[in-house]
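queue> pop job 88
queue> type: inverse folding (structure -> sequence)
queue> payload:
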């Protein structure tokens, strides 16, 4: 599984011109399940997101996790993270898991994050969404369970 994390001061999601989720300080996590990913990948990804130390400590060093700063997380499914662009100019999305596999895996990431005590908001799987954010830092981190 893949995730693109952005440290934010605020983030929100709209579907059909209605705001469905909003967070304050925390992380925006764009999450994708790829073909071949499974529940173990979703659990590992959630644990990594929860433990990642990307928030400043008293000395200004990135040394604190989301739970340590009482931050929130907005988890948004984004299958285009699995886009393949090596050939041609149109992204190929064949590496993305089909919805019947991807949805439960993204849901499992959300469930695991909540079980770890985090305040979690979500987008809507498969919907056309508008995601707004204010990236702090900027801090943007790429995670891919295939690489660790």
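queue> result:
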């Amino acid at each position: 599984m893949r995730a693109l994390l952005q440290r934010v001061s605020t983030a929100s999601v709209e579907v059909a011109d209605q705001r469905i989720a909003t967070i304050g300080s925390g992380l925006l996590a764009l999450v994708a399940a790829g073909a071949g990913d499974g529940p173990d990948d979703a659990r590992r990804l959630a644990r990594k997101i929860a433990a990642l130390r990307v928030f400043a400590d008293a000395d200004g060093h990135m040394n604190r996790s989301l739970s340590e700063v009482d931050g929130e997380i907005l988890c948004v499914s984004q299958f285009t993270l699995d886009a393949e662009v090596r050939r041609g100019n149109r992204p190929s999305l064949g590496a993305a898991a089909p919805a019947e596999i991807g949805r439960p895996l993204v849901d499992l990431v959300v469930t695991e994050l909540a079980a770890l005590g985090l305040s979690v908001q979500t987008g809507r799987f498969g919907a056309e969404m508008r995601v707004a954010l204010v990236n702090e830092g900027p801090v943007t981190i790429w995670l891919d369970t295939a690489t660790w």
